[in-house]
Amino acid sequence: NTNNNNTYRTLKQTYTLSSKSIEILQQENLTLAGFFNAVLALIIANDTHQFKVSLGNVISLRPSDLEDAESIIGPCINTIPIIVDTSNNIINILEFTKNIHLQMISSYEHA
């Protein structure tokens, strides 16, 4: 597909995660979101031939230190960028996922 002289491609894939894979993620205290972001980063890096990939971590929370936070009507949503470096040889997908998971968790302080 081409739009305004910018080339883009739509990626449509269906993946099924086995119950054993989900069990391993749970044992490692990892989330499906973290695993999804790890896989997405690898796909984007491969597809764009770039080692560093930027992902958006969407966070929806009300800051506890905000006065009258409970009176805000509507969602409080932030998108925090996460930079994933795929330049190192990724031998263990669990370790790679853990690194992304830690970035996702640490991004909450910026929400």
The rough form would be described as globular
Low-confidence stretches: none
Beta strands, count: 4
Name the helicity range.
25-40%
Sheet with most strands: strand arrangement: 1-2
Coarse structural class: alpha+beta
N-to-C SSE series? EEHHEEH
Largest sheet: 2 strands, antiparallel
How far apart the termini lie comes to 35 Å
Q: What portion of the residues fall into strands of 2 or more residues?
A: 15-25%
Computed over alpha carbons, the radius of gyration is: 17 Å
The residue-averaged pLDDT reads 82
Compute the number of helices.
Answer: 3
Describe this structure in words.
By secondary structure, the protein is of the alpha+beta class. The chain has three helices and four strands; from the N terminus they run E-E-H-H-E-E-H. The strands form two sheets. A two-stranded antiparallel ribbon has the order 1-2. Strands 3-4 form a two-stranded antiparallel ribbon. The longest helix has 17 residues, at 32-48. It is globular and about 45 Å long. The mean pLDDT is 82.
Task: Summarize the model shown.
The chain is 36% helix and 20% strand. It has helices spanning 19-27, 32-48, 93-106; strands spanning 2-3, 6-7, 52-60, 77-85.
Layout: helices, strands, pairs:
Layout: E1 2-3, E2 6-7, H1 19-27, H2 32-48, E3 52-60, E4 77-85, H3 93-106
Features:
single chain; 111 residues; alpha+beta; two-stranded antiparallel ribbon; globular
